[in-house]
Design brief:
seven-stranded mixed β-sheet, 43% helix, alpha/beta, three-stranded mixed β-sheet, 259 residues
Length: 259
């Protein structure tokens, strides 16, 4: 069942699995403000029954990043160009970027597990969209790159925190500052990819992972994800306290004593 299909984004639901597909392969799924609004809407449209969200891109590339038309004087039809935004007030620029970021923030919600199926190019905004997901299964032809600095910009779509968490500060800085490509073998070795498979096996590998993620009881996965997400920001003792509280909730639930 398709709940949304517009502006280069399609959302379909199959029981407890949602699939968000980027649907503009002719432009290598280049991104625009309209696409970002559609991605944010997809997150808002998820039924409460959804447990796993798979993100994929049609064609040979996951997403080649921001559509360069954003930097043209005319921008996109019906949209302010990035040049016009730069000339505007600081608070308008800040609020506009905040709206763009909404497309990248909902993938880490505790009530879902998000999986990016990444093939070919995942550049700039495409890299940050893959990083927005909890897990990444990638084809052996994947090419990650954070090219914003080569354009005189910074990554501003939520990608810097998960990138640093995955690969560490020094490697994250080197990847961003040089804009170089990270290929499949390195991506798996440094933690950007959970799994690398031949391109023609990508769909099957994602299906296998989705099946495994659906196997445990939902509430146990939700509680575990919440514990892991906040683990690095807590002290060891605070994390042990959080573990005890979460386990207490699970035990009471299993015993039928929860409210």
């Amino acid at each position: 069942m398709a709940l949304l299909d517009k502006d280069g984004v399609r959302l379909t639901i199959d029981d407890s699995v949602a699939t968000v597909t980027l649907t503009n392969p002719a432009k290598r799924n280049a991104q625009s403000p309209a696409l970002w609004r559609a991605l944010a809407e997809a997150g808002q449209s998820l039924p409460g029954t959804v447990r796993v969200v798979v993100l994929r891109g049609e064609g040979k590339s996951f997403s080649a990043g921001l559509d360069r038309q954003a930097f043209a004087p005319e921008g996109f039809e019906g949209e302010p160009s990035f040049l016009d935004l730069a000339r505007g007030a600081d608070d308008l620029l800040d609020s506009t970027i905040a709206k763009y970021q909404e497309a990248f923030t909902w993938w880490r919600r505790n009530d879902i597990v998000s999986v990016a199926a990444v093939q070919g190019h995942a550049i700039g905004a495409g890299f940050q969209l893959a990083l927005a997901c909890d897990l990444r299964v990638v084809a052996d032809d994947v090419q990650f790159a954070m090219r914003e600095t080569s354009l005189g910009l910074v990554p501003d779509l939520g990608g810097t925190q998960p990138l640093t968490a995955l690969v560490g500060y020094a490697r994250a800085l080197e990847i961003c500052a040089t804009g170089r490509f990270v290929h499949a073998e390195e991506a798996e070795r440094v933690g950007l990819a959970n799994l690398v498979v031949p391109a023609d096996e990508l769909d099957a590998a994602v299906q296998d992972l989705t099946t495994a993620l659906l196997s445990p009881p939902r509430d146990a996965v939700i509680e575990t994800k919440a514990l892991l997400r906040d683990a690095t920001s807590r002290s060891y003792d605070a994390q042990r306290t959080a573990e005890r509280a979460a386990q207490g909730r699970r035990l009471r639930d299993l015993a039928g004593l929860s409210d």
